[in-house]
Write a structure and sequence with these properties.
By secondary structure, the chain is an alpha+beta fold. The chain has helices at about 5-15, 20-25, 45-55; strands spanning about 25-35, 40, 60-70, 70-80, 85-95, 100-105. The chain has a 6-stranded mixed sheet with strand order 2-1-6-5-4-3.
């Protein structure tokens, strides 16, 4: 797998393991997911999104590439599971050891 910053590798691993609690623990208290412009901020909102559209539908991420620009690392992945399937980009903004934003784009 492509070398990822530890917190992002942990997020990918948690998603692939179906571990919502571990995934959420990696987000800052006010961290957010931006899913094509729909913003889910805070652990409760991110959990609700994940239960319906990410870990709850057994999403899997096979990393195919990584790009870095400042505090943002964009992970290209092939997404599988019972929801969306296909290529997608996940742009992670990190502050210290916590994710402040995970922006999903095509």
């Amino acid at each position: 797998m492509t070398d990822l910053p530890p917190v992002i590798q942990q997020a990918v691993d948690a998603a692939n393991a179906g571990d919502t609690d571990a995934f959420l623990a990696l987000f800052a208290d006010d961290g957010a997911v931006d899913d094509w412009g729909r913003i889910f901020r805070g652990h409760q909102a991110v959990r609700g999104w994940s239960d319906k559209e990410f870990i709850g539908v057994r999403a899997s991420l096979k990393v195919t590439g990584v790009r870095r620009s400042g505090a943002t690392t964009t992970v290209s992945a092939q997404v599988g599971g019972d929801g969306f399937n296909g290529p997608s980009d996940f742009a992670f903004t990190v502050n210290g050891d916590r994710i402040t934003l995970m922006r999903i784009t095509g």
